[in-house]
Amino acid sequence: MPFTRSSESGSPVVDWSDSGVVALTGRPDGPVLMPPGRAATHARELISVLATATGTSIGLDGARLLGERAAITGLRRGGEVSAGRHCRLLRTADGWAAVSCARPGDSDLIGALVGVNLDGADPWPALTRWAREHPGTELGHRAELLGLAAGPVRTRADSTVPGLPVASDIRPPAATPSPGTASGMTARPVAGLLVVDFSALWAGPLCAHLLGLAGARIVKVETPDRPDGARRGNPEFYALLHHGHESVVLDPEEPGGRRALAALVDAADIVIESSRPRALAGFGLDAARAVARGTSWISITAAGRSSHRVGFGDDIAAAAGLLAHDIGTNTPVFVGDAIADPLTGITAAALAASAPADGSGVLWDLSMTDVVTATLTDEPAARIRRHGDQWIADTEEGPVPVADPTPRAPAGPAPESGADTAGVLGSLRIPVP
Question: pLDDT per residue over 99-141, tens digit each?
């Protein structure tokens, strides 16, 4: 008999099975594995929160957003190697660590971490040997000093499960942020609001994309020497997240560009950024000053604004403990594709649809690590079995098939970098530098 899927369930096993993430979890030559926790369910709930708060029909399944980049780019599960193939799980002297080598200079940083001049050589053998002889905390400390995206894997024994990131001066929201439930906060529509997006890669741009679908005006800001690195990636996925947005390029090293950046932030209702605080401070931009004027400021970092850690979606999720367990080898394996990114982007959009009832501003300090950790539970992950040519998860409601990741087609092309600079500044009466 055919198995059917549910698009809205509230059951973690069903939601994981629908999401496409399970198909991306496990070894390439082994069975797919069920992740722990309820991240897929949480993603579905967050999209519902966003739609209710903004009074719009977003028309998306939050769970399936978690795997859509892999669907578009053709990524496959890799076990101890991430689906994107830029991050690895390595044994340490006392456990495991996740290390990313995604940027052009990361091989040199790995060489500095292990004290070896790699000189363009494959960094993984030297790092693998070094990691086995050192504790994960030492690896994490050295990585943070060097600016390398890496960290020890948090085990369930020492794991804490904090609530979601907290807005300044209010109580933590519930596990699923519900606009209006946090002290002094209320739901708000975002149609017509100006969102200035300084973020890059996936989490921040997904937040902007979702707010754009809810009717906000999105202005993406880049600098001449630091364009969004995602522009070098898959063009279809980049277009999916950026179609319908306006692209501005300004040089903060030039007085006119610096003034225009400040004026854009002054005009914004919502600012999204994914930089450490000192980076934007170097542009003359001050989150506290913007919040004091009534801006909602969404800051997305690996471990919070007070931390110096850098990270990407795979190493952050793994270090937070969102890993599946391969019973056959008794080793951890990656869950999905850089799952901390879409989970944080969805969370950020839901939080942006909540603001202080008195019209004042708010700073949302989103630690991607905490966003992931808040989805973990102590319940064991469900088992999956093979039925003919399908992977099946057994639930209380009956057997559920494991879905492949589902792609969305972009509505149109993304704007060329800087294509809208003059038009955006002119519409806001900001002098063009």
Answer: 999 999 999 999 999 999 887 889 999 999 999 999 999 999 9
Pair 150, 100: CB distance under 8 Å: yes
Q: Which two tokens stand for residue 3?
A: 């198995």
β-pair type (384-387, 390-395): antiparallel
Give a yes or no: residue 7 inside a domain: no
Q: Is residue 91 part of a domain?
A: no
The pLDDT tens digits for 176-227 are 444 444 556 788 899 999 999 999 999 999 999 999 999 999 999 999 988 9
Which residues are bridge partners to 367 per DSSP?
301
**Residue 179 lies inside a defined structural domain of this protein:** yes
Please state, in angstroms and rounded to a whole number, the distance separating the CA atoms of residues 114 and 112.
Answer: 6
- Extract the tokens encoding 332: 């951890």
Is 141 contained in some domain?
no
Structural domain of 317:
12-80+158-427
Could you give the CA distance from residue 250 to residue 433 in angstroms, rounded to a whole number?
A: 8
> Do 363 and 299 touch, CB atoms closer than 8 A?
yes
CATH number at residue 308: 3.40.50.10540
Domain count for the chain:
1
